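notes to self, project folder thing:

trying the whole complex as one job this time. last attempt i did each chain seperately and stitching them together was a nightmare. two parts in total, labels are on each line so i dont mix them up again. if this works i'll redo the older ones the same way
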Amino acid sequence: MRSNLTTLFLILVAGTGSASDGVLEINQTCAVETGCFAGDGPGLPVQITATGSYQLTGNLTQTSPNVSVVQIASSRVSLDLNGFAILGTNTFFGTSCSAPGGGAGIVSVVGTHDITVSNGTVRGMGSTGVALSQSWEARVDGVIAEHNCGDGIAVSYVAMVTDSSAHYNGFVGFRLNAASRLSNCSALVNGQHGIVAPEGTVNIDRCVSINNNGAGMLLDTVGVRSGSLVRDSRVESNGGPGINVGNFVNQFDNGSLVLRTSATENGGFGIGLLPVGFVTMEANVGTPLSSNTLGLACYVNETARLCP
Amino acid sequence: MRRTSTWALHLTLLALWVPAETQAADGVLEVNQTCAAGAGCFAGDSAGYPVQIVGGGSYRLTSNLTAPNQNTTLILVSGAGVRIDLNGFTLQGTNVFSGPGGSCSAAGTGSGIGASANDLVVSDGSIVGMGNHGIDMGTGSSGDRVERVTVMDSCGIGIRVPLSSLVSRSIARKNGSHGIVANSGSRVVDSITDVNGGTGIRMSETGDMTVEGCVAVSNGQYGILAGARSLVRGNLAATNVIHGIGALGRSEVIENASNRNLDRGISMLGSLASSDATAMGLNVAMLNGTLNFSGGVLIGCNMQQGLVKTCP
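result (full assembly):
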């Protein structure tokens, strides 16, 4: 009898990879050895195939730059990194990757929707850190993506990226698509641009984009022309323009607006031909705004104050 | 004696592991599909849906909840001071909305969360496919919050909050009616509405509200429609079927971009507009179907296409 009761108790306590609150757990041991839950076999990537809530309970380490660490193949998945990190071996300090490959930290498959990744770090992947560019309605909150050889964080349409950082990634820091929101972010020393949204229609505020090899922000470049809004941000010491929107000919008709933003010491012009207000542009290469034509409020352009 | 103590030990351990109610160690009451569809999750909740929350406190989902049909409400709140942490899980219904001008596959009377309760907080999860509304907190209570929630494919409104409430960092997409509806004194911030059948963000006509830092795109009516005495600031509205941004009198509409909407970009509306002016400034409105700007008193420059700038 005692033996039976003990067995029953152990079964109840051990469970599988499920925390007491129903959240399914992921850690390196189950990821590599047994699979962490139904639908996930041994070895990386951890495969999430069912809607639900998932949580890291330890760091995950990429076994090869060509192997992704977590693959999400279902819609409506919440992955809480829980303060832990997904770690690979790549480093990028502005020129080349030490261990490039095809493996991402977190990657979603085509056609999935409504995926949330939060609260942790993705560092050193052979490819992109957080690759949700195949999934609409994604959220990335409180994530640091650094030293990945691809993009830091990439999302698709109707995405919300908040309180996140993308540093020292081989390509772009943040890659967005239309109808999206990016706030409280930093993009530093990425191999290409800091923030990219080719179709525009993004609302960006409280972001800094500094020391990237390309532009600080490159928005609305494919001619959709629904405009973007940038407020309360800073673009500094980027190799290309601070903020560039659309093609140079029609960009002032793009519908974009930049307010309360400083653009300094960029390798191209500070802010492209856009309506601006309360901005500062100094020590950039090129000064496309030589009159107050586009000023909706006063702004500073190379020590000159220009007011409407 | 030894046998008795062993029994007692095991029973104690089992009792600790399987409590009578689904209450986590931190005191939060748990809600999951098993208890919800079964015997009830806690005191006050009878068998079957909806899960009935009648007392203040903290509640947490520990699984997805699935509605058996479009007429079933999944969670019904009547007690004040309730916090529901969706915990990354989903309230799942059966409806699919085809988009503005389209139809619902399974219209009904069931909402994801129905409530008429003060100080209700819902956070961190998704609500998809409800026959009626996604979150319906009614209009009569106050002080509610919706944070980091995605609501899609409801046949009715995506998110409706009562007086003096807050909707933040939420997404309302492809709902049959409006995306987000808020009542007087409320704030809707840092949220996205897209391809809803009605207006993206619709504020009560009685006004006194704030819409800030939002994206409203391709909705079937307005992108943002604000009541009187509202602040509409730092929003992006594009390709909506009527106006990008509409506001009633005594409002302030500043720092917005409103482009390529089928009717007007930014428009002052209603009987208050003529006698109680709405202030506008630092907005951009381009390539809209009829007018880029309509009405209002300028407190700063605005710009439309062709470098046409209008200043006070």
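what i see at first glance: Chain B is about 10% helix and 35% strand.
need to look closer tmrw
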